[in-house]
Amino acid sequence: MTILVTGSAGHLGEAIMRSLRASARSCVGIDIKASAFTDHVGSITDRDFVREQLRGVRTVLHTATLHKPHVATHSRQAFVDTNVTGTLNLLEEATSAGVDSFVFTSTTSAFGSALTPAAGEPAAWVTEDVTPIPKNIYGVTKVSAESLCELFHRKERLPILVLRTSRFFPEADDDAAVRDRYELANAQANELLYRRVDIEDVVSAHLLAIEKAKAIGFRRYIISATTPFTRDDVAELRRDAVSVVHRLFPESASLYASRGWKLLPELDRVYVNALARNELGWRPKADFQHVLDSLRAEKDFRSALARDVGSKGYHATTFDDGPYPVA
Q1: In a 10 Å sphere around its CB, with 0-12 CB exposed, 13-18 middle and 19+ buried, how is residue 273 labelled?
Q2: Per its UniProt record, what InterPro entries does this chain match (predicted)?
Q3: What is the mean pLDDT of the chain?
Q4: 8 Å CB contact between 174 and 323
Q5: 2-309 adopts what CATH topology?
Q6: Residue 54: is its pLDDT beyond 70?
């Protein structure tokens, strides 16, 4: 069974290609950029290119996209072309080619403004039932592409699973205040409490989705590290997240202090991965307890795969005021 991986030069695409090749699975990587994990260079906006690459393919893992960091540097039309038209090209040609399953990589950014409660409100408890309120062209086009996926399942009976992934990029936060207050590892360790996932776990979710797609048909899943919090914690998380973390993980205070790290004073959201764990049988390895275990052992909490893929950036240009410009 040949697996087509779009966006093979990107963080996730490379990670998937590394994993598939390591297990000797038949796979083809495509991207607009040449790389060691790109077998064919071309754009998903090119219908003829897409058609050619789908010959003999049984599964599509569609990770290619313009991301949030591109909002300030790319036109809205470019987002529509890549994220919507490119996805439509893949769906139509996958249907024509008789592909068995299609996995679409989406994003928790699709929830947009639904992630930010009003002042004084509890942290948002974010499950798949939350209605997205996109706040930029990135979110709009990812939600649109998700809807195309749902349409093709309904009309063409193509088995499609949509994976809304939380943060897994290794680059620094685009928020200067976060960069100033927290060193990179500290910030990303904090995020594993509520809004981050290790790339190795993202890959495992995609590989499970291949296996489960035909039986499930269509579903959206949040792919984020398993949070230690419950819905009963959301009010206190907004007021005093440090107290909640110290209550659940008493050793976190000393382990953080030994590194000079700080917890976030409040959390505005919590991503809930229960549906993916229950229906896909997904068992993410990296969570906050893993962070603490790694600190105690004086080890890097990132997976070997995350370290191997490393930082790629999103632009050929470097920017004076951050890792990428903010629109």
Answers
A1: buried
A2: Epimerase_deHydtase (IPR001509), Lipid_A_modif_metabolic_enz (IPR050177), NAD(P)-bd_dom_sf (IPR036291)
A3: 95
A4: yes
A5: Rossmann fold (3.40.50)
A6: yes
Residue 320 has pLDDT above 70, yes or no: no
The pair of three-digit structure tokens given for residue 231, joined into one six-digit string: 């819905």
- Return the number of other C-beta atoms located less than 10 Å from residue 321's C-beta: 9
Q: DSSP for 173-192?
A: PS-HHHHHHS-HHHHHHHHT
The residue whose two tokens read 């997976």 is: 303
What are φ and ψ of residue 170, in 5° steps? -85, -10
Tens digits of per-residue pLDDT, 210-230?
999 999 999 999 999 999 999
The pTM for the full model equals: 0.95
Nearest to 313, CA basis, from 87, 109, 9: 9
Q: How confident is the model at residue 263 (pLDDT cuts 50, 70, 90)?
A: very high
Euclidean distance between the first and the last CA atom of the chain, given in angstroms as a whole number? 42
Phi, psi torsion values for 234, nearest 5 degrees = -65, -35
* Euclidean distance between CA atoms 158 and 91, whole angstroms: 9
- For residue 74, the Cα-to-chain-centroid distance in whole angstroms is 20
**What are 206's two structure tokens?**
């995609």
Q: Say how many C-beta atoms besides its own lie within 10 A of residue 99's C-beta.
A: 20
For strands 124-126 and 269-271, give the pairing: parallel
Greatest alpha-carbon span in the chain? 58
CA distances from 214 to 221, 305, 323 (A): 15, 28, 40
Which residues touch 238 (CB under 8 Å, ≥6 apart)?
A: 117, 120, 121, 122, 123, 266, 267, 268
pLDDT confidence bin for 323, thresholds 50/70/90: low
d(CA 178, CA 252) in angstroms, rounded, equals 20
pLDDT of residue 311: 80
